[in-house]
Amino acid sequence: MKKRIMLSAAALLLTLGCSQNQLGKSNSKQSVKPEQTVDVLSYVDPFIGTGGHGHTFPGATVPFGMVQLSPDNLTKERWDWTSGYHYSDDTLLGFSHTHLSGTGVGDLLDILVMPFVSNYPENTNNDVGHLYAKYKKEDEKASAGYYSVYLPQEDIKAELTATARVGVHKYQFGDEGKPQILVDLGYAQNFDKAVDTYFRIENNTTLVGYRKSTGWAKFQPVYFVMEFSEAFSAQLFNEKKMVSGDSIQAEKSEAVLSFAQLKNKSVTVKVGISYASIEGARKNIAIEVPFFDFDKTKLAAERLWRDQLNKIQVKDNNEIEKTKFYTALYHAFMAPHSFSDANGEYYGADGKTHVAEGYNRYTLFSLWDTFRALHPLLTITNPELVDDLIKSMMAFYDESGVLPTWDLMSNETDVMIGYHAVPVIVDAYLKGLTTVDPEKLLQASKTSAMQNRFGIDLFDKYGYIPSELEVEAVSKSLEYAYDDWAIAELAKAIGKEDDYQYFTKRAQSYKNLFDKRVGFMRGKDQSGQWVENFSPTHVDHRTTDYTEANAWQYTWFVPHDIDGLKSLFGSEQAFVNKLDQLFTVSSEMEGDVSPDISGLIGQYAHGNEPCHHIPYLYAFTDQKWKGEARIKEIRKTMYRADPDGLAGNDDVGQMSAWYIFSSLGFYPVNPADGKYIFGTPLFDEVTLTLANDQKFTIKQLGSTGENFVDNIDLNGQKLNRNHITHDELKRSGHLTFSFQSRERD
């Protein structure tokens, strides 16, 4: 049986010695520490990205976990609070068990728990309309797998940790007031709302129930079991009567648990969740946390993170850059989320309960974002995980009839464009990382590409999408063309010549939208005439020819045929000149400018995904050093080691994945061709630990931070090309970048 990333906490605890470091968290990395004594977790700062537009959260989770146990602030549907938390806020509503990291839309925040000592519900008669507590930023700490905060008015210290499917709380009460805990199933923020809630008190230490909600995910059931280390008495609030047919059902959305003997003592709470059943949640606790020992669970979470992050080991004296790098790794490994219980049960895209036979089911596939770099990163760091991800997408296909586009807890949100499960699947197959039948992979991919919605049928009919017939016509045409290239490559690999020819032709359709007179990808109507009143800097959010972007930003999206794109400009120099202009023109835009279009250098927008590959396009010319200069600029200005440190939403790890690859010195411009295009490395030396404990080392020689790559050697042999392949990277070896000075043009 293959090794799984999701190990139980109980199994992990057997391997933990009592010499493991207790981790403190410091936001500043001033001193240089001896490499061999530094715990990699000391470089993880979960507060990075929790301010500004980063939309991350600071709470406790494990790599690819089902549970994300984190504090919730008062969001009031504000966009920068989509994770439930913002660093600028100091109003705590409680700790919920599911969160989204870096998304542009909010949901989840299920099963809210809040300790308090005042009288309930009188303490909800306030301007918030909910129980809350204030806290100070200096009393808030976070590290990988751990979060804590002190609530001074309540004199309560709250600590959180997690396993894959269980959140573990520890609340230390003072000697004033009545120790109580609120469990609120009706609580909702952003677009979410509860539609059905249920409690059952099994005994004086166990509470079970479920919360069913609608929002971004149209129907999301979450079942839970809570086990307490101390006995409680319970009172239920907010009873509602609902008529269903001839029966009347009582719904209670809030439970207040009182503890008679907790003054100056602590209580530990284990909360198992499941998307399939209460019994599934109970089994998750029994398997992952069969004890009441907060510290052991915390150590187990830290061990998971330490093992995961140590797959990339950095040797360099720049402490701040290492904090940025390892925090980016931390954010990249939060999703996709584990979705099946320890016994394999999960809630399917057809609304039924299924069993994942021989694999873990995953969800939260933000594919418009993550197909670009996050999924290629996982093929390097976690090749053993990839087959489960592909099987999860294919199970979604079996249950719904189509591959996922943006899968949120087995709900298709259809929130973004393209059918980008296809390049992820194709990349996995071509790299030999999936056991799924390739014939079925091809059929599923073709099903996505032959839909009669989202302009896909129009794209097939016209060779582009007419602008008057479909919104975001240019962006959709370009992204469909790329996905079709991936289908063609899969068809070619398994000997399906007719499919190969058909989808190769469709992949070249991007050329139909390039207007040589203006040098941009531009909309056409169904008669083939260019759309009038064209401006390359015009933006209207989700109502124009471009998706969260403009013509400056989308003209470059032809990752499968860079040479073909260059030829449209007439010459390589014209191509380079246009790239130069992208970074140097005014950043001013007209129209309804989306807040997603952030991190601007000229019209280049690093805060949103369509631009991420663009700096690497210089590597396809004889002026690659210009791309290196832009990569350095982006690394420095768009990523900082502070809460407002990200130029835009982390988008379920894609922003972080860009930084990780770009620190290593290469990037998957075409995420499914098995090539990583060279840029410029950040660190003195990086060692990748690959499958079977093979080591691949990346070094730089002669870099001052200001000069440019002169030569790249692979295992002592000079590479006269702009890339390294996945096959080369996955074997033991060493890649060396040598530098020299160059006068800038």
How would you describe the overall organization of this protein?
By secondary structure, the protein is an alpha+beta fold. The strands form eleven sheets. The protein has an eight-stranded antiparallel sheet with strand order 5-6-7-8-15-12-11-10. The protein has a six-stranded mixed sheet with strand order 16-32-33-37-34-35, with helices on one face. Mean pLDDT is about 90; it is low at about 1-35 and about 245-250.
Low confidence ranges: 1-36, 246-250
Structural Rg: 26 Å
Largest sheet strand order: 5-6-7-8-15-12-11-10
Number of strands: 37
Helix content: 25-40%
List the helices and strands and how they pair.
Blueprint: H1 9-13, E1 70-73, E2 91-96, E3 112-116, E4 133-134, E5 140-143, E6 146-151, E7 156-162, E8 166-173, E9 180-184, E10 193-203, E11 206-214, E12 220-228, E13 233-244, E14 247-258, E15 266-274, H2 278-288, H3 294-309, E16 312-315, H4 319-332, E17 337-338, E18 345-347, E19 353-355, E20 362-363, E21 365-366, H5 367-370, H6 374-381, H7 383-400, E22 406-408, E23 411-412, H8 421-430, H9 438-449, H10 456-462, H11 473-493, H12 497-507, E24 514-515, E25 520-521, E26 538-540, H13 551-554, H14 562-568, H15 572-584, E27 590-592, E28 600-601, E29 604-605, H16 624-637, H17 654-664, E30 666-667, E31 675-678, E32 685-689, E33 695-701, E34 708-714, E35 717-718, E36 723-725, H18 726-729, E37 733-740
Parallel strand pairs: 26-27, 33-37
Antiparallel strand pairs: 1-2, 2-4, 3-9, 5-6, 6-7, 7-8, 8-15, 9-14, 10-11, 11-12, 12-15, 13-14, 16-32, 17-20, 18-19, 21-22, 22-23, 24-25, 28-29, 30-31, 31-36, 32-33, 34-35, 34-37
Helix pairs in contact: 4-17, 6-7, 7-8, 8-9, 8-11, 9-11, 11-12
